[in-house]
Amino acid sequence: MNVQKCYYWLLPLSGLLTQTTWAEITFDGTLGSPATLTGPNYNLSTNLGTQVGNNLFHSFGKFNVGMGETAIFESSPNILNIIGRVTGGQTSFIDGTIKSPSNLYL
Question: Is the pTM of this model over 0.85?
């Protein structure tokens, strides 16, 4: 009986642990230096990408935004579009908020 009660406590706790481990944003290094950002607020500055004309390009190894987290793409007046790709081969999870002052394409 006591072992069964223990399992009832472990199940919700294991769900919390797995939810927090997958939320992160990494840059793959193809359009700038490799970097890893940690939440809950991810500030994606313009210097983490490559600007070509009025477009800013980002290349991510992982792009996951957990519940209660926010990915904030920074821009400048001469950037009209922010274009991002994910190259890591894993499914991205976006359960949080994404903000951008420019047009954003992921």
Answer: no
